[in-house]
Amino acid sequence: MRLFIVIRLSLLLSIAVFPVFIKAQEKMISPAKMNSIKLIDLAGKESRINLSKAVVFVFLSPECPLCKNYLPGLVKLKNSNKDINFYGIIPGTSYSLKEINELKNEYGINFDLLTDKEKRLSKYLGATTTPEVFLINKMGAITYSGLIDNWSSALGQKRLVITEKYLEQAIKDLLDGKQTFKKTIPVGCLINDI
Questions:
Q1: Is 0.85 surpassed by the pTM of this model?
Q2: How far is the CA of 111 from the CAs of 84, 122, 154, 171, 180, in angstroms?
Q3: Among the residues of the chain, which ranges form H helices?
Q4: How does pLDDT run across 165-185, given as a tens digit for each residue?
């Protein structure tokens, strides 16, 4: 009788845990898929994402005021996290390489800026807004996506004091070996179809 109860409890537990496992798998990226996505660097050449270590993708727009406000902080975050590859992704065809280079020079951006002209990376990750960030560990799991912090609470509304540094905390958790996942809803300029 005890064996029957143990087997039944094990079966119920496995059924309860199985959906969690499936959800975790939905948050994985495929290196093969990532390598098939054509991105263009500021020299106009095709570029690939280096997935040998954790990656932060920051979706940006050169004309989005919120993106520009966040750039100095992103540069500092990159400087203090050398073990993570940062990529600024500019989706669509609205901006020339000259405009993107001017943004890089004006804000001293110290990470690669790549254009996603066909928005394949944007669609693959589910990016909808600029600025929007994705933190991916070296195993390919998306451990954080959404806001950089809680400074902007809605379009045109900003807090006086930042109380939650979402991306910074997610990076710290990742580097400390914590297995966490968090998602916030980004605020900013919508990625359009152009």
A1: no
A2: 11, 18, 27, 16, 25
A3: 2-26, 31-36, 65-79, 97-107, 120-125, 166-175
A4: 999 999 999 999 988 889 999
